[in-house]
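hiii, so i know i said id send this last week but things got crazy w the move. better late than never?? heres the sequnce for the chain we talked about at the cafe, plus the structure i predicted for it. fair warning i was half asleep when i ran it
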Amino acid sequence: MSGSIPFYQKHHQHYDRGYRSLEAKSKMSHYQTSSRYTAGSSTSATTRSRGLRASSHSGLEESRLSPITKRTTPSYLAVDKENQIIGYVVPIFRGSQEFATGLSDTEEARVRDTSAYMARRNLFTSGVEMERSEISRKETMRESAERISLNKRIHEHGEHFKRMNEDSLMHTPEFVIKPRSHTVWEKQSVRLHCTVSGWPDPRVTWYKNNVTIDPFANPSKYKLESRYNVHSLEINRCDFDDTAQYHVSASNSQGEETAFASIVVKRFKGEVNESLPAPRHGPISEYGITFQTHIVDKFGVSFGREGETMSLGCTVIIYPSLNRYQPEVQWYRDDVLLSPSKWNHMHWSGDRATLTLTHLNKEDEGLYTLRIITKSGYETYSAYIFVRDTDAEVEGAPGAPLDVRCLDANKDYIIVSWKQPAIDGGDSILGYFVDRCEVGTTHWTQCNDTPIKFARFPVTGLVEGRSYVFRVRAVNKTGMSRPSRVSEPVAAMDPADRARMRGTSAPWTGQIIVTEEEPAEGVVPGRPLELQVTEATKNYVVLSWKPPGEKGLEGVMYYVEKCVSGTDSWQRVNTELPVKSPRFALFDLAEGKSYSFRVRCCNSAGVGEPSDQTEATTVGDKLDIPSSPGKVVPTRNTDTSVVVSWEASSDAKELVGYYIEGSIVGSNVWEPCNNKPVKGSRFICHGLMTGEHYVFRVRAVNAAGLSQFSPESEPVEVKAAIASPTPPYGITILECVRDSMVLSWKQPTFIGGADITGYFVDYREVIDGVPGKWHEANIKSVSERAYRVSDLRENKKYQFQVRAANMAGVGIPSLPSNTFLCEEWTIAVPGPPHDLQIRDVRNDSLVMLWKPPVYQGRDPVNGFYIDIKEADAPEEAWRGVNTKAAEKAFLKIKDLKEGETYVFRVRAQNKAGVGKSSDVTEPVLALTKPGTKEIVVDVDDDGVISLNFECCDMTNDSKFVWSKNYEEITETSRLTEETKGNKSKVVFSSLEEEDIGIYSCLVTHTDGASASYTLSEEELKRLLEVSHDHKFPIIPLKSDLAVELLEKGKVRFWLQAAQMSANGKVDYVFNDNLVSQGEKYKMNFDKNTGIIEMVMESLTPADEGTFTFQLKDGKATNQSSLVLIGDVFKQLQKESEFQRKEWFRKQGPHFIEYLGYEVTPECCVVLKCKVGNMKKETTAMWYKDGHQIKADENLGFTEGILKLEIAQISRKDAGVYEVILKDDRGQDTSTLNLTDQGFKDLMNEVFSFIANSSTPLKITSTDEGIRLYTFVSYYNELLQVTWHYKDSAIAFSDRIKSGVVGDQIWLQITEPTEKDMGKYAIEFNDGKGGLRRTVDLTGQAFDDAFAEFQRLKAAAIAERNRARVAGGLPDVVTIQEGKALNLTCNISGNPVPEVTWLKNDREITSDEHCILKFESGKFASFTITAVNTSDSGKYSILVKNKYGTESGDFTVSVFIPDEAGGKKK
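okay and structure toks below
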């Protein structure tokens, strides 16, 4: 069955015409359900007209046994010619009277619900594949016979179903097989099955935790199937999130049934895939958890400028906090849901929602709302965002237009609309220019040559099929505005084509293609209906109409015709091509003329009759500028905002909105309050200056333009509005006697912007649960939050309510309290404390105040206990703050956790015990609010002590309330309060011990702004000392009197005062006598820096004594003295004389740095000195031991360095070196003693350089033993080196020697043994600490060195004792025939080598002709008694012993003498 598909998918997207009628459908249905075609049969009937094959997949037997039919899915796949899926085909069934004739209503319904329904079910079942095949003549004949048989069967079945009562077939859904629960491993797939019966066919829906499962939203996760009443849900690759309760619901017109199953996903222990989501810990959110959502850290009313980036964010606290649970976060602007785009970026970090407006434009202005949606509901927060115009490119140019949209788009025009800006730059806007840009390019083209005033414009000259974006610019006399934000892209194409292209994308491909029945061919369409002019301006007219009433017509298009009023000449507008959509815009109409219009339908069959013509329409702007708004009424709102309301413009058409402007009274400067038109007649203007008086005006705007301004409003002061307070709450009983009760309550959460002046209490009696009438308990308001209600009846029950009052009036009453019984308390312990207050909230502390209980118990209250717990902690979490009872009715609570929220309560105690706890406070967040100030102690110049407090969050109604020990200060004899602006202080008249205590300041009408200061005994003493210093001030000194020497030996006495005024004076005293300015003393006082100085040319013995500087500045005084007597004075006088001489010395050539030396890394010694005040004539003479060694002349510098280099220094270089500088101005001498200790110090520094240049000790082997060595960069014969073995100096012997070869320093160990193993070191002596290099000659290092020594030793022995030919043999011997040849060579070797003689590489032996001898083991001789020509050849001697072999070669050439002088042979 799966190998074929329905014919309608293979041919085209419409139904085959052979099956258009209900009767034919019914026949086809019966044909497919006949007994011949059981489930699994592939036999198919093929229609002759189409040549297509349709296969069934349901059997007749099945349909006979059960009246329950199969419902097909509502959408079907559409394929192209190659059977590729291209989208959906959704058939739309329409009844046709032509094929329903002869059937009654009930019969027609029965046919529709039985045979026709079954036919449709089987015809449009998905999953059946089609294939084309050539139909042979034989197959056609067989199919014709089958068709005749089919008609007979269809008739029989039709009669059978007509006799059946459809009511007996219908029943509610029933689960024949219910889904069962599964437990699966992670990453496995699972499938839930169920079988459902019911008539009509039930609609089956699957749910997960009561949420509908949408397979198209996650096609890779879920797969739903429904076949033969068997329904399944398949879940692919299960993870922990799939652990849930699933249920399936089956419903039809008769009822609904539900079946449940659970899936549990498990994970193998230890196998955690990092790519998988982490499992949830704790309960799953969908299982009955109620979420509490709180939005904190909110964004406020904000102001931005076009082009800027703005981020709005709120912190979201969701309780309980579930791992990986993410709420739905939505952002709205003016109640319109925002979607992510290039302008809007949305982010959720897990606890913070952020909206980033990447590039602000005025379109972004509006009321922004954050909505956090959970399973338990949602929470919202809203704030207004204002966007101001950016600075114009030309000063005085208008602001940019906004909200550019495309109202109507066709293939040859697009109507663009926009909104006018609020700012016109000071001159009226002359009009607007519209620009277009083709999508994909960056080239902007201006669409209109002259500015247009109407805020709509038809853009023509477009290329069909291409997409465009638009922008608009405003212009006035001054210049052009910046362009608006570009519009959304829109394609220039016929709306009908656009509608066909616009479809809902299928989950996997293509579009949803909605098809109707096949259009009727050859039928001319009728008249269009309801033709009307929907829009008319001087530039264009827009017509709209409805298609003709006939259905099923072949492709209808339209011609539009126009006629000038008063004539009968109709002219076709779209002569080239008819339009496809029932909407058309006409251009190029003569302004001021009247026209009528009509429309004709056309198709391939011809052109139909015209529609009814429209009424005469005059070309021109139909829309008028709205009238100015009416009366404007401003109302106080907050410290920075005002509510402005106005009367709407009368008879305003197509109103876009209103612009509001505000001006400070008297300034005559108007500023826009909004830059985006607002609808309605009320707006909150933010960003105003507190305390200023403003007037407002409003104007309306529509596409035609801006109206005139409304009349100016009355001035209004920007100040928080005053309202009556909200109801008090938390009514409790503090004491009860026989005829009265004492109530307490909590202050309203909102006091209305003004101080509460009092409270009114009402009571009523409750009899048998039925409350009576309310009675006033007090006629005059009470200021305390506690009141005794008298004249009650004992043992009666009462309820109470409380109202708060302020200057705005009496607020609404609180909710009735609980019912209380009026009976006398007799308990021994105290009642509950009341009126708990929180002050001085900081990150880690706060102060709590309370009032003692009204009911004391049997004994007076003697202390209080404070309890604390986290706000969200259970009741068991209450814990005590103080272990010892607090005596006073306040306590500072410390060691709080920053950012945590706490609640508190108080209990009182007496001798009988601890009483009932008070009501719990409101939750308090332990966090220091931004801008919080502390009380500052100040002592002024007169020694007056004051406490100062500053508040940054004050309102106009705020007041400073000072308290001592948290009781308001009313006694003014010791304290005086002064308040100015947002600062207040209390001044102590005279600070004494009775003033010790805790001073606090509370600012009313703020969010709890307060601070405290503790004046303890220690602080009192400190403040009194500071006060005394201020009353009797001392001029502070940065430095006391000191002395220093200047050039030329002058003596300077000086000190520096920290601060002195221009009126300050100084007296200079020497030995109690005033001294004054003169030749001996030069005084100076720099009042800017506070430096006071006295300079003397020189010191004489008469100047020994005490010098004093006495300072006076107003009433402040100070002095400083310096005693110069005895050795101190003598040393200063000596130094002064030396400095004087030095000054004269430096008038000629002189040494800036005297002769010294330095050692270079190459161990060269450089003698150098720095000289100054040189000139060309100055000479520098170098001397050693009185003998000149060098002369520097014509130095050519004023200041420089003279050098003398000594390379490879030795003992002969010791001596006294001297440099003399001389010219006509004088001479200077510098001497360096390099003898004895001086020379020793120099050499030690050289030795230090040598030691530091040494390489690490290394080990090597020789044929004599083991050698340790190091290299130095330079060796000096005076260098002292010590070798150590095991930390002891080595005593050298014939076996252990040291020496130097070049720059190598070595230690030779001859014939080493294991006793020589150990740690060796070489120590360089540089007169300081020396330098030691070590090496460890043990273990493997020794073994390797010893083995190498053995090898080298053996090689040396072998080399020394091997056989050698020491010499004596020539290379070539030339001899005359007949002569005797005798050659002897020296042989060495131990043992004595063996000697072998060879001729031409063959061994020869001694005989009479060739005598070979080897004598004394040293001499080998070779003798030929008489040579002949046969003796010529190559001869070799080969010596050999156990250590080696060596040979010596020579050549013998014998010649025969002849008459010519001989010829060699």
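btw The chain is about 10% helix and 40% strand. thought thatd interest u
miss u guys!!
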